[in-house]
Amino acid sequence: MREYETVIGLEVHCELATKTKIFCGCTTEFGGEPNTHVCPVCAGMPGTLPVLNKQVVAYALSAGVALNCDITQYCKFDRKNYFYPDLPKAYQISQLYLPICRNGHVDIEVDGVKKSIGIHEIHMEEDAGKLIHDEWEDCTIVDYNRCGVPLIEIVSEPDMRSADEVIAYLEKLRMILQYLGVSDCKMQEGSLRADINLSVREAGSDKLGTRTEMKNMNSFKAIARAIEGEMNRQIELLEDGKSVTQETRRWDDNKCASYAMRSKEDAQDYRYFPDPDLPPVSISDAWLERVKAAQPEMRDAKLARYVEEYGLTEHDAAILTESRKMADIFEAAAAICKKPKEVSNWLIVDTMRLLKVHEMDAADLKFSPDHLAKLIELIDAGTINRPTARDVFEKVFAENVDPEAYVESNGLKIEADDGALKGVIEGIVAANPQSVADYHAGKKKAIGFLVGQTMKAMKGKADPGTVNKILAEILNQ
What we know:
- The chain is an alpha+beta fold.
- The protein has three domains: 4-287, no CATH class; 297-409, no CATH class; 418-475, Arc Repressor Mutant, subunit A.
- The chain has 15 helices and 16 strands.
- The protein has helices spanning 54-66, 163-180, 220-239, 285-293, 299-310, 314-321, 324-337, 340-357, 369-380, 386-399, 403-409, 418-431, 433-440, 446-457, 464-475, and strands at 4-15, 70-71, 74-75, 78-81, 91-94, 101-110, 113-126, 130-134, 139-143, 150-156, 192-202, 212-217, 247-252, 257-263, 273-274, 281-282.
- 33% of the residues are buried.
- It is an enzyme of class 6 (ligase).
- This is Aspartyl/glutamyl-tRNA(Asn/Gln) amidotransferase subunit B.
- Keywords: ATP-binding, Ligase, Nucleotide-binding, Protein biosynthesis.
């Protein structure tokens, strides 16, 4: 069998984090009852006129600057015409001829090898509605709430050669967009989704093969499986002497197979023409400079600073900076309690564990940095011990409770009366002569059982260090 090379380019659709839609005042909030976030403009009623949301342009500029693009300071909107139930106007307002950003790149690293992935363009456009296929009723219904939600479409060059490179590119892209604050990039809500353009060719050839497109992929795992599946499908066709048809395909992740949907349209099939209702967008030098000046500290710079300023390991700094939300909590809590390594430990160990348990993303964290700092201060002051602190943190994580008030109202403070604690320990020692005998016989681990019994008797409201100290004194008398 001949050797083949896979050639992949992506079209990534990213919903922007504006409060209102791109051409009207309807909310962009996710969810809601079907067809309730709709007005005559985004529903495509005759006689309505679009008005451009300026924040959409600002977000697109910010993304373009961060992705090393050339900015088109005089750009236009065009109409992309097609008839489909989720598009009430029968056209989509997009940008074909003068997109806002061109010629950028994203740098990735896979298995220690660095590579630059070119970005052909970024353009602004409106989202379509959502079709819902009801298998029980054997019908399709449409929800127009998403119609008019602002998007940027990031079109890469066909520079990727494997699923690993695609995932590395998407992860880097998502991280940059989240750091900028232009999108929450929640793939499960459709805020970030990708169309995969894939072809194969004989290794060593510089001629591109016939490509297919798989649309609206919103899971990294599904994307990786779809790439492997489509690559193998195309190679099997070529090995059998058949040709690959240029078409749009649907990936069924449950069956790990793709199915033809329609022949792939070219630009002329959409009959693009400049939108007559929207004037050109003119981006001044001053506006562009303001956007550049407002760019946040990005992950690479933040990671290096955490190692230098806070004395963290590169491994810990990498985990904290993977999400801007996590990094923001870390910096704010460290500034309050002045214990950056303690804050780092609580985020890397306990927070990451709870995120996994609750199947959450770091961007969904709700607890305040102030409450995490308070919890650390309660431990440092000896008000609560670490096992109790971990229980309290679960409440902080889930409900953002004030740990100080929670400890007080639930009677979780450590018993500070050493005399009372000593009396409890003496009772434990008297009730467990075998453990005492084991300890005196050289089985030092026996003290652990006695510590556990004491903590149980104290309902966790004792300092393990103090318990160990008093136990040792009594046992060694």
